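Lab notebook: predicted structure, single chain.

Context: the supervisor wants predicted structures on file for every construct in the current expression panel, including those that have not yet been purified. This is the next one on the list. No modifications to the sequence; it matches the entry in the shared construct table.
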Amino acid sequence: MDKEKLPELGKIHPEFFDRVIYPRLGAKDKNLIIGPRHGVDYGVIKVGQQCLAMSTDPFFIVPQLGFARAAWFGFHIVMCDVAVSGLVPKYLTIDLNLPPEITEEQLAEMWEAVHTEAKKYKITIATGHTARYAGCNYPMVGGATSIAVGSEKELRGPHKVRVGDQVIITKGPAIETTGLLAALFPDKFKAAGGAEFQKAAADIYYQMSVLDDCAIARRFPGVHAMHDATECGIWGGLYEMARAGDYGLWIEQELIPVQPVIKKTAEVFDFDPFCAISEGTLIAIVNKKDADKLNKEFKRKGILSAVVGEVVPKAKGLKIVNAGQERKLEHPKVDPYWQLVEKLAQFGT
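Prediction complete. Output recorded below exactly as produced.
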């Protein structure tokens, strides 16, 4: 059988990870509670009586968004991946490998936005590195590690999921895809549906975070696992969560909320929103006792959400039901967002 090859763009797919990365993780350590695996956005180390959840991501800056707005997004990408651990996000370390063309004013604007968001969420920047180098380009201008702190009791993860737990999804699919495309290619949106359509799509931008979602969810002890539906969207996120926890899923697609402007964006640009990158969409697996309570609390706080399915025994597999038709849930492998950016960029804005 042919070995899986790397995708042209985006994250490597699970099969390549399992074959090349996962078997080679350095020295073993008994204090590592959760290590690298699909469907888990963070690793966890126990230090004394406390747990540290950590996640590392690129620091993502798109100048066309404006440096303040781009830095808002860069900050939230990094911090959301530890927020889903159930522990409280507390620290950030950041390495900025900046392109030579960035100006002092642009760097100051970018850093002020990072500082503002860190203060808002009571996060301390612990250490870092800042320099300009030849060969560095936007949007990946370095990397950052986020750290959350708490007790092992407060930790969420695939080990806590049980058959019968409910699946809750917030905001719906393609949040990041819609928000970024509308900001990067405003003329394409205006040409397709007018200025009102472009503005509605661009307004999705500030939904691209699960920090507030997680702050609500961690107050409910019945929340067993959480995941931010980033690369390959909701279908990719659900698939990875099930693999990480070794369980099955029964998902009713029609129950997943789809915001009208996102539905129109998917139709106009011809992509499957459920496969598209969706930073800001929280997938939470919750016991039956707390599922309805959490869903109501999300709605009370103005966050769109719905109970869309449940955890079933692994033997029943991963199933999506739509309009009475049942199909197997598979990992999309290729996220349409990157192809859309490449296609739209070829024709300018």
